[in-house]
Write a structure and sequence with these properties.
Blueprint lengths: L1 E4 L13 E2 L5 E3 L7 H9 L4 E4 L15 H19 L7 H23 L17 H19 L4 H12 L10 H4 L7 H19 L6 H9 L20 H16 L10 H11 L6 H10 L8 E4 L4 E6 L9 E7 L2 E9 L8 E5 L4
Antiparallel strand pairs: 1-4, 2-3, 5-6, 5-9, 6-7, 7-8
Helix pairs in contact: 2-3, 2-4, 3-4, 3-5, 4-5, 4-9, 4-11, 5-8, 7-8, 8-9, 9-10
InterPro entries: HD/PDEase_dom, HD_domain, HD_GYP_dom, HDIG_dom
Pfam family, one: HD_5
Protein name: HD-GYP domain-containing protein
């Protein structure tokens, strides 16, 4: 299989991986031959990339960190929990949030057991999905990224559970933001953006009143938009004034935000998202956290076409643990000519580096 942009897919291409919505309903089944109307529908839904079948890649199989059913079950748990909280008109009932925290704590332990039980890099490009309930998917993804970073930084099991709870709850304040603002496809007005920014303060106020939740969880919601040079919000904190967990969730939050489908822009590739983190490393984001992210997460997902510094082109066929930017590659083309495919391992070929990705359909 190969990963391609929906904007370049041609009719009669065969879909290699099913596409779901967030309720677990199949939109398009694996093996279907795409028609122009289907491709246009995918683009209208905001789905940026899909996996297709292509000669020479039949045995390349993408495997996400979570299985599709497991991922959907986790999102449904988050969705049901947040909706229960939202049904409290003022979002002031500590009992409702306390009950939610117990459910989330169980989910975090479950997710940790899944991540720890696998040696592969964290890889969340497991299924194409629509953005109807973006906050739920985003909360799950940010939690998984944060836990992967925390494990790379050798946090204790107790610290990981608190970090995971902070990540799951980091956007709870958005439940007070009107949906027409959250899902607005056009540019936000200054007043609308100020309304969005209030979610960090709102989240802190909701969580700090729940005595069974560590106060640090509330500060995760409060600080995940702070930046180490003081340019973040809501308080403009700098450097060591920001808790380490806040710095971790900030990196996870930004990466998932730019690599996910949104109503107002297309998703970036993981490699493009990492470039944003690198650009802000040491100024916006903690450098150690960014480095931990690089070691823990698959920057070039299996199935993506890459261009190498020596002119060869290939498809990522596998990952190397702890080396997110040094995957295994199946070479498909050299000097503009296709030949017999063969494998190289960037873990061994240290003089070869990836200089770009190609998601056009061939």
């Amino acid at each position: 299989m190969r990963l391609v942009a929906t904007t370049s897919v041609e009719a009669e291409t065969i879909l290699a991986k099913a596409i779901y919505n967030e309720k677990g309903q199949i939109l398009l089944n694996e093996g279907i031959m795409l028609k122009d109307v289907m491709i246009q529908r995918l683009q209208d839904l905001g789905i940026s990339y899909i996996f297709i079948k292509e000669e020479g890649t039949e045995d390349i199989e993408y495997k996400g960190t979570l299985s599709d059913p497991m991922r959907r079950e986790a999102i449904q748990t988050i969705s049901a929990t947040f909706q229960e909280i939202q049904n409290d008109p003022q979002l002031t009932s500590s009992f409702v949030v306390e009950r939610a925290s117990k459910r989330f704590s169980e989910l975090i332990r479950y997710l940790l057991s899944e991540i720890k039980g696998k040696s592969e890099l964290l890889n969340l490009l497991s299924e194409a999905y629509t953005y109807d309930n973006y906050i739920f998917t985003h909360s799950l993804n940010v939690t998984l990224y944060a836990l992967a970073i925390g494990m790379e930084l050798k946090l204790t099991s107790k610290e990981l559970e608190i970090l995971g709870l902070g990540a799951l709850f980091h956007d709870i304040g958005k439940l007070k933001v009107p949906l027409d603002i959250l899902l607005k496809p056009e540019r936000l007005t200054d007043n609308e953006f100020e309304s969005i920014k209030q979610h960090a303060e709102e989240g802190f106020q909701i969580l700090r009143k729940v005595h069974t939740i560590p106060l640090l969880v509330a500060h995760c919601a409060y600080q995940h938009h702070e930046r180490i040079n003081g340019t973040g919000y809501p308080r403009g904190l700098q450097g060591s004034d920001i808790h380490y967990f806040g710095k971790i969730i900030a990196v996870a939050d930004v990466f998932d935000a730019v690599t996910s489908n949104r109503v107002y822009r297309r998703a970036m590739l993981p490699s493009e998202g990492v470039e944003i983190l690198y650009a802000g490393s040491g100024t916006l984001f903690d450098q150690k956290v960014v480095e931990a992210f690089r070691f823990a997460v698959a920057i070039y997902p299996v199935g993506v076409s890459v261009v190498l510094n020596d002119g060869r082109k290939g498809i990522v066929s596998g990952q190397n643990t702890g080396l997110g930017d040094r995957p295994r590659i199946r070479i498909m083309e050299h000097n503009g000519e296709r030949g017999i495919p063969y494998e190289i391992d960037l873990k061994q070929d240290l003089n070869v580096v990836i200089i770009g990705c190609d998601t056009t359909s061939k």
